[in-house]
């Protein structure tokens, strides 16, 4: 045997021996217990320095170094560093802007420090400038560390790489904590954690504001597509099933199939034994049924739908028991909730729940037909017929009117008249989607586009890059932008407003339930409706209103459908559709 063969044999034996000595965490049993996530990480430097302490001269040097793309590695060159020093008067601080709302953490890469001792810094993450400048002790503006730490003190090492935080943010403030300290920063990077997936759906029209709104809704939901589908990336990092319905509608229009939807739906089912309601809310298990129907229509996965059969049957049977002798819903065994702005209008909640029960049992009957359970499907339809004999009053609630319309309990035109009163006052980011859907049902597509411009548009005008948990146009007068220090005499749109569980800085500025305009514009302006399961048949009927053109793409299990509408001088709309094999297009 020559020396080369002996050399490679020794390498092989060494590798085999090393494998045998691997720690227990790498064993087959331990590997089976491990969990992976479906997200990736990207590192982004800040795009601007918003603020520095007043006494920064001589205490903060070379801040511009932090705006450069780095290597992610500490080194010994000692070159091009940002230095913060508290050896003079006061303790220096800087506020960084990463340009856009992100989900993730912060990475600090440091150079050498005196004596090699760790340096203590205070970090404050913020979805707005004012939040990043706030204190958690500020009870007046409700700054919190709820759900995710956004205000903390941490020690960072010399010549090291430290990663801190897991939250939603755009801005980060860094302050030295101790006197007579010096921090040498080589890099500060935001760590963007997200699903690396393509935007298969698209929308473009002659109104650039609507284009921006469509994309902002898509991006808001994308950030919330973490290991599970959340409602908010800073607060409400939970699987709220009702809140998911606008999100799953957006996902279908933008990303097509994504595992985060069935994974989160199954999670909600598995932690909610019947007769309990998902998230404790009587309406949220109803939203689960409605999402199942919509998801099946878009993706056509019958095998997945069959996995829901037993739970679906028992859930629908439970709902059928919640109708009294007056044909009224009596969903008193769970929290009675539509959305926060309607939560004090008790008659409106009843009208909304009555409507939702009609929609749920009607949808349940459709699904049970597919799942070959005609007996329970018939029972569902009989229950719906009973419910339709009792039509509650909307009590001037736009939320209730929307649901009454969509369930067929109120004429669409009548509901639209109520929803249209006083413009977009009394809109909400969650149920605004269903108000828009009710307008479309009434044929008021122009009114829907105007409401999108007038309600979601102002958030963008205030510097938003994602849509908020709630928004009220009454907040607009004399309010400042979220990407600037609040000028003297101005109102802080983030810290001074909000209600219920989202007062002040606890208010989430990246909430997936606010994405309704994205699927609405795809469905009603681009004009795409799914007619047969799995998008085997779609209908394309545009409603351009005051637009001169609209074009875009729509994802299906068979590939991308390309659509373009152009309004001619005659007023007629010329439509071009290119669909992949397997997709039949109706006009």
TrEMBL record:
- Which keywords does this chain's UniProt record carry? Signal
- GO terms under biological process: carbohydrate metabolic process
Q: Which residues form the Alpha-L-rhamnosidase six-hairpin glycosidase domain?
A: 200-345
Limits of the Alpha-L-rhamnosidase C-terminal domain: 527-584
Q: Where is the signal peptide?
A: 1-20
Q: What is this protein called?
A: Alpha-L-rhamnosidase
